[in-house]
């Protein structure tokens, strides 16, 4: 008899992983099953980030996972980092966003663009979860046009004085440091700004219907003075923050796979047990067609992200390839979450089930770090050679 396939991995993508990659996935998966899933629905209801989990997340080596061990990281490859994102988002997008920002948007720029002193000072405690970072790029009026940046930093003797505001900043009110991008006379530059610096203010954003188990803030800079040693010395211009976003978007291509798998598993269990008109809902042709389509789309996303990870680890990954996977996988996941919510019927509108929570979270994931339209246009530019922005 043929062995029955894993409904969440029809193409046995797991067999394409190394032993180390499978170990990473299994370790994070156990953490999500045992520590995240029992509380995350309540956290979402309460609008609370489960910061009590930070020491455990750090203890598993999930913060700065790809950073070399000499700076406190775990020295993992890109595929392992992707699997971390997939498993964390199977729990909740807010949890993956926390790790994504800490790893790709805060630790990465210090590692890639920082001085040796900055690396040694910040990276080990950040990997340990003792210093939390946030990433200050997006501005209230800027959105998809980061070049339209108003936040500025002006040289004053040996210091820099920063003025401006940033919006939609994950971890803002949790953070001990902010990676702040600002216009200078010499182009856009990055600064590591301690959040207890005079003139710095973080204001948490409430009334959210998405990423409720995550801290989202607005940042304000009123003559925030930092020494030149706070400046990231090894990059100038938009390539600095855009390089960080490429790293984070890579992880985001993996995360929604976990969210979609969570929704599909929930609906497979529900339709097997739900009796309607005298038979299990799973025996309905319309339901099976929907389930089959979900499996098809999840499989496609798995293979996209795995190949993207192999390209990344070979040093061949291009931003357009990241855009294609982010666009495809976020669209896949949000469509599946909505479809699963529909199959669950009235029960699907409560956080007793995960589909509505994932669907609402994915409204943010499909928007941040490049909207779906922006990534479509990135691919279009690659195909035609014409910039249509």
Automatic annotation (TrEMBL):
Single Gene Ontology MF annotation: glutaryl-CoA dehydrogenase activity
All residue ranges annotated as the Acyl-CoA dehydrogenase/oxidase N-terminal domain in the record: 18-130
Pfam families (UniProt xref): Acyl-CoA_dh_1, Acyl-CoA_dh_M, Acyl-CoA_dh_N
Domain of life according to the entry: Bacteria
GO-annotated biological processes: fatty acid beta-oxidation using acyl-CoA dehydrogenase; fatty-acyl-CoA biosynthetic process
InterPro entries cross-referenced by the UniProt entry: Acyl-CoA_DH_CS (IPR006089), Acyl-CoA_Oxase/DH_mid-dom (IPR006091), Acyl-CoA_Oxase/DH_mid-dom_sf (IPR046373), AcylCo_DH-like_C (IPR036250), AcylCo_DH/oxidase_C (IPR009075), AcylCoA_DH/ox_N (IPR013786), AcylCoA_DH/ox_N_sf (IPR037069), AcylCoA_DH/oxidase_NM_dom_sf (IPR009100)
Cofactor(s) named in the record: FAD
Enzyme Commission number(s) of this protein: 1.3.8.6
Reactions mediated catalytically: glutaryl-CoA + oxidized [electron-transfer flavoprotein] + 2 H(+) = (2E)-butenoyl-CoA + reduced [electron-transfer flavoprotein] + CO2
Domain Acyl-CoA oxidase/dehydrogenase middle: 134-224
Top-level EC class: oxidoreductase
Acyl-CoA dehydrogenase/oxidase C-terminal domain ranges (all copies): 237-383
Keywords, ordered alphabetically: FAD, Flavoprotein, Oxidoreductase, Transit peptide
PROSITE patterns hit by this protein: ACYL_COA_DH_2 (PS00073)
Pathway in which this enzyme or protein is active: Amino-acid metabolism; tryptophan metabolism; Amino-acid metabolism; lysine degradation
Family label: Belongs to the acyl-CoA dehydrogenase family.
Protein name: glutaryl-CoA dehydrogenase (ETF)
Species for this entry: Rhodanobacter fulvus Jip2
């Amino acid at each position: 008899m043929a062995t029955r396939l894993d409904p969440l991995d029809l193409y046995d993508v797991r067999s394409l992983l190394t032993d180390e990659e499978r170990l990473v996935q299994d370790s994070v998966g156990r953490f999500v099953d045992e520590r995240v899933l029992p509380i995350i629905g309540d956290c979402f209801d309460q609008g609370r980030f489960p910061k009590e989990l930070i020491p455990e997340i750090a203890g598993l080596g999930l913060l700065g996972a790809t950073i070399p061990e000499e700076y406190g990281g775990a020295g993992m490859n890109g595929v392992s980092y992707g699997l971390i994102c997939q498993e964390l988002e199977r729990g909740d997008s807010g949890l993956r966003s926390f790790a994504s920002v800490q790893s790709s948007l805060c630790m990465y720029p210090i590692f890639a663009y920082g001085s040796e002193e900055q690396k040694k000072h910040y990276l080990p405690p950040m990997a340990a979860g003792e210093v939390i970072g946030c990433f200050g790029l997006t501005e209230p009026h800027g959105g998809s046009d980061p070049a339209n940046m108003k936040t500025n930093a002006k040289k004053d003797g040996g210091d820099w004085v920063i003025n401006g505001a940033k919006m939609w900043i994950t971890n803002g009110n949790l953070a001990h440091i902010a990676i702040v991008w600002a216009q200078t006379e010499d182009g856009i530059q990055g600064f590591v700004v301690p959040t207890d610096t005079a003139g710095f203010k973080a204001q948490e954003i409430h009334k959210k219907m998405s990423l409720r188990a995550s801290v989202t803030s607005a940042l304000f800079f009123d003559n925030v003075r930092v020494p030149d040693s706070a400046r990231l010395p090894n990059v100038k211009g938009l390539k600095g923050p855009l390089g960080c976003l490429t790293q984070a978007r890579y992880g985001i291509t993996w995360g929604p796979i976990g969210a979609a798998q969570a929704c599909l598993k929930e609906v497979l269990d529900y339709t097997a047990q739900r009796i309607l008109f005298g038979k299990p809902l799973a025996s309905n042709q319309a339901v099976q067609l929907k389930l089959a389509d979900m499996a098809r789309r999840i499989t496609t996303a798995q293979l996209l992200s795995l190949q993207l990870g192999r390209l990344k680890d070979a040093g061949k990954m291009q931003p357009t390839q990241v855009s294609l996977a982010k666009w495809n996988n976020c669209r896949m996941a949000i469509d599946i979450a909505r479809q699963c919510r529909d199959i669950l019927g009235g029960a699907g509108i409560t956080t007793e089930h995960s589909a509505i929570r994932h669907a609402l979270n994915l409204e943010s994931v499909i928007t941040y770090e490049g909207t779906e339209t922006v990534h479509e246009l990135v691919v279009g530019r690659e195909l035609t050679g014409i910039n249509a922005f």
